[in-house]
Amino acid sequence: MKPFSFVRPQSARPSEVVLTPEQVRLIEDTRRFYEQLQKKPAVTSVLLAAILSFWLLSFGMGVQDDPHTLIRLGAKINYFIAHGQWWRLVSPIFLHFGILHILFNGYALYILGRMIENLYGRRRFLILFAVSGVASIFASYAATPQMSVGASGAIFGLLGAGAVVGYKHRLDIPPAFRRFFGRGLLPWIVLNLALGLMIDGIDNYAHGGGLAAGTLVAMAMQARIGRTPAVSPWPIRAAVTAGAAGVVGLFVFTIVAMLNNLFIDESLPPPKFWQEYADPAARLAAEIPGPLLRDETTPVKLGAVYIERELGFQIAVEREPEKQLTLEKAIDDLNRKIDETAEIDRTTVQIHHDEESALAGYQARHIYFSYQLKDQSLPYSIEIWLAPTPDGLVSASCSAPDLFYPSFARWCRRFAASVQVLPP
Predict the structure, then answer these.
(1) The listed CATH number (3.40.190.10, 3.40.50.1820, 3.30.870.10, 3.40.1000.10) that belongs to domain 274-421
(2) Residue 319 forms beta bridges with which residues?
(3) What is the pLDDT of residue 299?
(4) Half-sphere exposure (CA, 13 Å, Cβ side) for 10?
(5) Cβ neighbours of residue 26 under 8 Å, at least 6 residues apart?
(6) Residue 24, Cα to own-chain centre: how many angstroms?
(7) pLDDT score for 182
(8) 2: phi > 0 → left, psi -120 to 50 → alpha, else beta; which?
(9) Contact between residue 276 and residue 292 where contact means Cβ atoms under 8 Å apart
(10) With pLDDT > 70 as the criterion, what percentage of the chain qualifies?
(11) Of 152, 271, 292, 371, which residue is least crowded by CB atoms under 10 Å?
């Protein structure tokens, strides 16, 4: 028997495929566009490194249990921005709360940042990201008092830019990639905005502000798409370079301010003016931070209470003529007041420091302590100065939730240092 052999029929040989010039051009355009999207995104990588570094810093300082770290680092707090810490319109972009928050935003920034940076170039991308991010925080500042952190507003700006690219340059994008831009991004934009409406704690004002800003900036910019991308005139190139340099300077200034506020000076800037308090009946005078308003709903016998309602910061100055006390008895009197206040959980009272001081020219006791109310888990801090005088006990106190109290320390101590006992 002859060994088996297979001979391919002549008709089974593959025929030659001849591509038209248009097909060759399309393949080359697709390859070129793919290679453009695969370039290493330097600016996106730096932004991700900065965001991750601040998350690790806040995580290491216990932000999961105490959001005070985020407030000290630069979370969006409207009251702080209104009183001079304008850099908080930038700093929240670098901050995140919780591992899911950083993972979601970090992944979204990596995917979108890589595409948008490679389509617009490093300088234009940096401007687009910064404008979207700052606009998102400003929109939140204008619309809601809630604390806010996260780069999601800037990421929404990148989504808007991707949609603009799809419509503005639809003829320059190869067909294989068109579904990733333009209308292809609209469902993601709508879905994420809808999630923001359904889930508590998501700042949809920031998302909307970032989306609007990113869309508008992208409409004014020219992407680098096509075989021969358009070259902008030199005045525009110079303006883009100057804008990118300005963004770098803004980010560096903000990061320095964040670290300074965390490690060196976690206080509010001084108020623009101080108002004079003088009450002849109480025989007391003091300087009051301008933003605080007198609270008539919290009566004192002789003196006054001033309060900032948004953050719960309160100061009080009082004279109690009937209390002819020594310093030791003044401390006992304070403890009795705490015990008699039904709302305070006595087991949570912690004294942080207790030292001799001065108030209105008299020897005083300065005590800094914290406590919790029985129906709340939020701790409060109080600094109080107690000064027995020949005309009775004089006290000056400042209190606020623990989250915010350290920022008011400078205001508090200037107020206490200004208290005077007026002559009869």
Answers:
(1) 3.40.1000.10
(2) 394
(3) 81
(4) 0
(5) 174, 175
(6) 50
(7) 72
(8) beta
(9) no
(10) 94
(11) 271
Q: Kindly tell me if the per-residue pLDDT of 14 is higher than 70.
A: no
Residue type, 411: W
The amino acid that residue 74 corresponds to is: G
Domain residues of the chain, as ranges? 19-263, 274-421
Q: Name the residue among 349, 350, 410, 361 with its Cα closest to residue 385.
A: 361
* Closest listed residue to residue 111, CA positions, set 158, 69, 78, 77: 158
The 10s digit of each residue's pLDDT in 269-310 is: 999 899 999 999 999 999 999 999 999 888 888 999 999 998
**pTM for the full predicted model:** 0.86
Do 308 and 327 meet the contact criterion of CB atoms below 8 Å apart? no
Tokens of 382: 């109080």
Give the active site residues. Answer: 152, 207
- pLDDT at residue 27 greater than cutoff 80: no
Whether residue 330 contacts residue 382, with contact meaning beta carbons closer than 8 Å, is answered with no
Question: Residue 40 pLDDT > 70, yes or no?
Answer: yes
Secondary structure (H, E, C), 356-408:
EEEECCEEEEEEEEEEEECCCCCEEEEEEEEEEECCEEEEEEEEEECCCHHHH
